[in-house]
Amino acid sequence: MTTSDATGMESRELQEQFDAIIARNDRIEPRDWMPEGYRKTLVRQVAQHAHSEIIGMQPEGNWITRAPSLRRKAILLAKVQDEAGHGLYLYSACETLGASRGELTQKLLDGTQKYSSIFNYPTLSYADVGTIGWLVDGAAICNQVPLCRTSFGPYGRAMIRICKEESFHQRQGYELLMTMMRGTDEQRAMVQESVDRFWWPALMMFGPPDAESPNTAQSMAWGIKRNTNDDLRQRFVDMTVPQAEALGVTLPDPDLRWNDERGAHDFGQPDWDDFMQVVKGNGPCNAQRIAHRRKAHDDGAWVREAATAFAARTSEVAG
Amino acid sequence: MSEREWPLYEVFVRGKRGLNHVHVGSLHAADDDMAVRHARDVYTRRNEGVSIWVVRSDAITASSPDEKDPLFAPSGDKVYRHPTFYTIPDDVPHM
């Protein structure tokens, strides 16, 4: 890390240089000087994002062995593998900020760092695989497209890769739901029931309303966030309504209607008390998700040890 | 946890023949061979590359990050190295 001693610059001058880079919409790169708060905010945000990808493998992984055809199984496997890949891109970006991988893994396992609450809801039917692709990945894309322009270079570059791949995730989900909607009444009912369960949690993915999001202003000033939570939520609703119509499902919000004056949809608020309960660890699957992650980590310990021992021995023999 | 962390590698991918290898990110691996395999799985799931380089991150020597670094000063004041420095009449062809 660069310190004021190393460059012979005063911290005020470093701060000015940092501010100038942000002001001209340029990117901060890992070895640049940055305010401690900027670094901390990014580590927290990127780590949470990475953990979400890793935990996000579980709800859909639940259906891999029960996918209804080989085609659907191959698609689902590829998608879950992508989530692992996205987690790795993001851990890699987070490590450029000085966080270590072991430390990040530990913080996920012991709960000191969070992941997105959306993954604490169960996947009760196969339609959920489609709904997650359509609504959950759709909301993620809405969040992530502006993050491609985030001020920290490695995070933005990871987001560009991720967004390209998320498009496949959303489309496979929507196509799955379209197929079910062309099926039997029972299948259509499954889709509607699934959409009813995931609609509000999907809206919660954008975070609390702006008035209750104290860090948003600072994150936007630093160019980490490019839009407020409410802006992105509105954008998501406006994008999703015509998709729901085309699909033939009803979004479960009695207040949802087009507002001609605003040129946007009015819609109801999710149950934020419920949201806080899930964030605090009391959602339907919090304990199960972490227990599963811990077990996978522990079960893999011998593989990591064996690979380390093998690498040590080969380098001895070669050396 | 007393496990030692696997070393960090930087990954470079050649998108197709005729292009340079470009840095795409980093990953952890126990050794060089594993780093190439992991790089394939993490960074080329959709035909993004025809060739991969990996190198231990601690083997890279880099210039100072500061863009005002004196290292780059020698090229800063030599406008005559650029073709636009020279005025040629418009009617001179192929120049």
What does this structure look like?
The complex is a heterodimer of chains A (319) and B (95). Chain A has one domain (12-251): Ferritin (Up-down Bundle). Helices cover 66% and strands 2% of the residues of chain A. With 319 residues, chain A is mainly alpha-helical. Chain A has a two-stranded antiparallel ribbon. In chain B, 21% of the residues are buried. In chain B, 17% of the residues lie in helices and 22% in strands. Chain B has 95 residues and is of the alpha+beta class. The termini of chain B are far apart. Chain B has a three-stranded antiparallel sheet with strand order 2-1-3, with helices on one face. Chain B has helices spanning 32-43, 73-76, and strands at residues 8-14, 21-28, 51-56. Chain A binds chain B through residues 2, 7, 29-32, 78, 81-82, 85, 88-89, 92-93, 95-96, 100-102, 106, 154, 157-158, 165, 301, 304-305, 307-308, 310-311, 314-315, and chain B through 1, 3-6, 8, 25-28, 30-31, 34, 41-42, 45-46, 62, 64-66. Chain B: This is 1,2-phenylacetyl-CoA epoxidase subunit B. Chain B: InterPro entries: PaaB, PaaB_sf.
